[in-house]
Amino acid sequence: MKKYIILTLIPFMAQANIEKRLLELDDRLTDIEISNSTKKVNVGMEMHMFAGHISNDNANNTGVKYSEQNFKNNLRLKFSGRLNQDFQAYASLQASYFFNSQVQTRQSETDDMTEPTKGSKPYVRTAYFDWKLNKYTVFSAGRLPTTSGPPDHIKHGRARLGTYPLASFNLPLDGLSLTFKTPRFIPHSELSFRTIYIHGGLSDSQQPHKGTPFNSTTPTKLARGHDGFTQMVELENRTPNKSFYDSLLFIGQFSYLKMSSFKDFTRNDQLLAQTLGTVDNNIYRFTTDDNRLANLQLATAYLEVQKLLGTNFDIFLSYMRSWNKPVANIKATVISSAHAGSPVGTEIDAGKFISNGDTQGTRTLFGLRYNFKSSFIGADYWKTSSFPAPNDLYSDDFIPLGLIAGEVYHLYYTHMFYNNDLSIRVGYQKINDEKVFGTFSYSDSNQKIRTIYTALFVTY
Amino acid sequence: MNKDNLLKKIILTVMITGVVQAGDYRYFAQVIGQQCQRSKQLLLKKTYLGFLRNSQSCEGSFAKQLLNSCKALTCDSLISAFDESKSKESGTVIGGSL
User: Fold this and answer.
1) Looking at the structure, do residues A46 and A23 belong to the same domain, yes or no?
2) For A289-303, A356-370, B5-19, which range has the lowest pLDDT when averaged over its residues?
């Protein structure tokens, strides 16, 4: 009898036990769901630190040889927020500085995004959102990830770090963008189109309803905003047949920029350095005679192939051609004279933007990388011709290469540590410049710059 | 499969979904899906979780299973897809979260 009672109760006892376990598991699941639902923002950090030695013979400039060690740090704080599957926002703050650059030298802060090495005060590098409008279309707006584009990621051993190919622009730009990813009709491929509109306002930031004169001597003529359109096409292919390659990325880009003239400003410049044969210590006021500075067009192609022909080689090739039509004449007036031959009030023709007449220019980047298990060795080559649009205004590296017209050779070895989140690179860079971009235009140059460096890149 | 095992799988899936929000699992799954359309979701998720611990190795049992189940995949392509999915969370490409 007792045996029958126990046998009858066992299923009920087991059921009670399972129900208790279910309640416990339900409780734990609820905790995880709450935790996931309340976690909206991810925070990350990158540090990119350089140590190296730079030498420059300054052959055709001051003639004073430069040879010194340098240390530089780029610190980047990254944030991403996911409101839901369709709306995400990204932001990053960056500080870039040479070690102890503000001891004695008193580096001043500027709001000029063409000077990324501003000191230890952080600034907004990106701040934008992606809003998925439907299955194929994303609308984005804000300060877009337009810096450190391909092939910048190659030497870091990372996935793509920016949108625009490095040969075209490397500048943090605010804008609006529409990305359309086509339904998949090419096997193993993603084909997308992206249109970007950029506007730069030059009105009085405190009283935007009033506008602002671009030139203090002609207060009736107001400054115009910049306008820029960019159209991109991207094809990413990952074929199952690895005998040709592992992955292929092609980017085609065309940009049309109407650049407005700057508001008049005052600064020192080396306009008379060659005439004087020494450093020009004059202070100038720069003005233009038209509120349109230049019209600029750029066409860029980028091709990257990983694991070429089944080997451990990755290669990239990028080509940019720019067409520049300068409009405004730039004038410099001496407002503080340091030289007897140029008294206060002397007017100097400072030319036009990039060049004095309509010009074209090209920039070609070629590189390859050979991959080992946790490291790789690579080489890059940059070459420019004529008057290319200056692009690398925003380099994290020691020397912004996009301001230099000439040739650059770069050899490096990178080793990856800790799940690829830390990389250390040693490299040698040889720069032979023919022209260098100053405030508005290129001037002849003949520098032989050599850099030996080590760089540490860590991401969290 | 008993209820405990079933619930453990549910918990694992919810946890992975949470981890996935930190990176971009969807991108990883999309890239692998291009090369291997029949790959199992749970196997992909467990492989992704394995890479979050060690992205330099395909020695994990789930990564091995995935590679065995799809000859179009290589260890390099898995690691490359994972690296790219990690960079997606930083918003490196305009409209890249599509």
Assistant:
1) no
2) B5-19
